[in-house]
């Protein structure tokens, strides 16, 4: 059994901080679950271009308000606490936060923990 606490990730290598977001990676590839689990804060007033070409992601918003815009279609989805969205087609999108949003994110395949978005919004496929 694996038991972890968010407080144990904060301030460690499991907490990855960027200009627009902070991701606390709670379960990683090394945990052997077949997915990774993150507690992520998206900062108010930011828009992040994202295009996970190597991962599928499901996101559950537990706090805050913002939107996801699909780049190819222009379609916009309002996000607030209680909303789930799943990027099941490796959708290129823009994630915008009106106020800080707290998200629970699941990635398949799992990340190893050091990933950050490249210039195209992609997490690399890292093999550890």
Automatic annotation (TrEMBL):
**Gene3D superfamilies (UniProt xref):** Jelly Rolls
The biological process GO terms on file are: ectoine biosynthetic process
Do you know which Pfam families this protein is assigned to?
A: Ectoine_synth
Show the coiled coil region(s). Answer: none
Gene Ontology MF annotations = ectoine synthase activity
Give the reaction(s) catalysed: (2S)-4-acetamido-2-aminobutanoate = L-ectoine + H2O
The alphabetical list of record keywords is: Lyase
The EC designation for this entry is 4.2.1.108
Instruction: Say which family it is in.
Output: Belongs to the ectoine synthase family.
Job of this protein: Catalyzes the circularization of gamma-N-acetyl-alpha,gamma-diaminobutyric acid (ADABA) to ectoine (1,4,5,6-tetrahydro-2-methyl-4-pyrimidine carboxylic acid), which is an excellent osmoprotectant.
Q: What is this protein called?
A: L-ectoine synthase
């Amino acid at each position: 059994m694996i038991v972890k606490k968010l407080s144990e990730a904060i301030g460690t290598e499991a907490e990855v901080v960027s200009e627009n977001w902070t991701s606390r990676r709670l379960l990683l590839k090394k945990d052997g679950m077949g997915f990774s689990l993150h507690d992520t804060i998206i900062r108010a007033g930011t828009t992040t271009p994202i295009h996970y070409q190597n991962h599928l992601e499901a996101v559950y918003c537990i706090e805050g308000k913002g939107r996801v815009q699909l780049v190819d279609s222009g379609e916009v989805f309002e996000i607030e606490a209680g909303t789930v969205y799943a990027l099941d087609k490796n959708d290129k999108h823009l994630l915008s936060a009106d106020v800080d949003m707290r998200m629970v994110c699941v990635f398949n395949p799992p990340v190893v923990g050091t990933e950050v978005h490249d210039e195209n919004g992609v997490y690399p496929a890292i093999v550890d």
